[in-house]
Specification:
Helix content is about 30%, strand content about 30%. Strands 2-3-1-4 form a four-stranded antiparallel sheet, with helices on one face.
Length: about 80
């Protein structure tokens, strides 16, 4: 399945909650996307998230349903140092 990096910009500091993560996981499952991991910026206003999804549109649909931003969505592939050893 394709992988995507999503940049999300928030107006307020992000304070993830258990309920929020449960809702996110359920909506993602409903549209066929899988959250792999995220990085949270030091100011807690930006995340960079790695997802597996059938398409960028599926990620946009999940974001719309959750009312969260998906400002930049880029399809990515693996590139690791050990590949060049």
């Amino acid at each position: 399945m394709p992988r995507f990096m999503i940049e999300r910009n928030f107006a307020e500091q992000l304070e993830p909650t258990r309920d929020g993560i449960v809702a996110l996981t359920q909506v993602n499952a409903d549209v066929g996307v899988h959250w792999l991991f995220s990085f949270l910026s030091a100011d807690k206003k930006k995340t960079y998230c790695l997802y597996e999804a059938p398409s960028a549109e599926a990620i946009r649909e999940a974001a719309r349903r959750l009312n969260i931003p998906a400002d930049v969505i880029i399809e990515v592939s693996d590139l690791r140092p050990e590949q060049f050893a």
